[in-house]
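Write out this protein's structure.
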Amino acid sequence: MKRRDVLKNLGLATGFFVATPGVISLLQSCTSEVKTWVPEFLNTEQGVILKNLVNIILPKTENLPSATELNIPQFIDTFMNEVLDDEGQTQIKTAFSTIVTILKTNLKETEGVEKLTETHYKSLLDTYMLVKGDIDEEREGNPESLEITKSEFLNNIKWMTINAYINSEEIGKNVLVYDPVPAQYYCGDLEELTNGTSYSPTK
């Protein structure tokens, strides 16, 4: 099986997140409190790291909630636990363990991941998260490897975070333009009708 086929099976190829009714239902079912959430698929350390990563990607602003406030870490953990097959889960665990090891180089031997700061997470993302035009040197050096590179893993955590966020009920109904009856016809300038805001994908 080729690497891209493996990534597709993991849901980690570009455009993997499709807002099917099943995925949306899974997202809306994640309602546990952030402070008391216990991961089902990830271990405790990975759960802490995931919460911090998604909040760096989508932090709280004056007008918008953070990713953790919308239960995005819970959704990602549940998605990995319930949607991925055994092979996919193994790939994810290996990639996540690599990220944990990198982050722990910033800690003393007796310190836990709770001691990691925002600066540590931003440094990780600045180092490994790719933007358009960047080259994944790890992939370039081993193009047929079935292992997920650090950049592939982090970029897809970002992709999943953003897509889960905009498909959440809170953002869909209270931030984006929400039309529960999309068959209605509106006459006028779209920019004026929506104040420049995108239509909600929430059904």
